[in-house]
Structure to design on (155 residues):
């Protein structure tokens, strides 16, 4: 069984502002509650086939995890594959113009329930993932808009 969630928010900033913020994986801890530290393996930028490594805290434990970058289509889409708990998972962002100087940002998450995670009722897990994604999207919006206001976003 696969659970899929989607969160959408309009950001008062350009597509480039949102894209640049999301590509700065060192800032992911600002908006992702489970990420304590994040970096592109080997340095450089996000590229399909590359890896991002994280120090994370979820399910009340701190650990390291890696996610494969599966898609980068600058400046509109990025996607990753890894795990949530013991289940294979994918997530990504779609970034679309929503009028002059605003952007429609969409985050989707898919989890293929496996192993012990099959015991968690899908509705409960889906609501938890949705709630986390909604919190993350609000934090992305706040950070990008603060950068734009401060003049540190893209011109």
């Amino acid at each position: 069984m696969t659970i899929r969630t989607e969160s959408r928010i309009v950001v008062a900033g350009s597509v480039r502002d949102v894209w640049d913020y999301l590509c700065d994986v060192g800032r992911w801890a600002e908006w992702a509650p489970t990420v304590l530290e994040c970096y592109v393996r080997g340095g450089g930028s996000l590229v399909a086939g590359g890896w991002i490594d994280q120090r994370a805290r979820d399910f009340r434990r701190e650990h390291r995890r890696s996610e494969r970058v599966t898609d980068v289509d600058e400046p509109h889409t990025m996607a990753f594959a890894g795990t949530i708990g013991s289940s294979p998972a994918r997530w990504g962002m779609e970034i679309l113009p929503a009028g002059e100087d605003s952007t429609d940002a969409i985050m989707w998450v898919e989890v293929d329930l496996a192993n012990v995670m099959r015991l968690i009722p899908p509705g409960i897990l889906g609501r938890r993932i949705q709630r986390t994604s909604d919190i993350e999207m609000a934090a992305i919006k706040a950070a990008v808009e603060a950068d734009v206001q401060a003049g540190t976003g893209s011109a």
About this structure: DSSP finds three helices and seven strands in the chain. The mean pLDDT is 92. The chain has one domain: 2-150. The first strand starts at residue 2 and ends at 11.
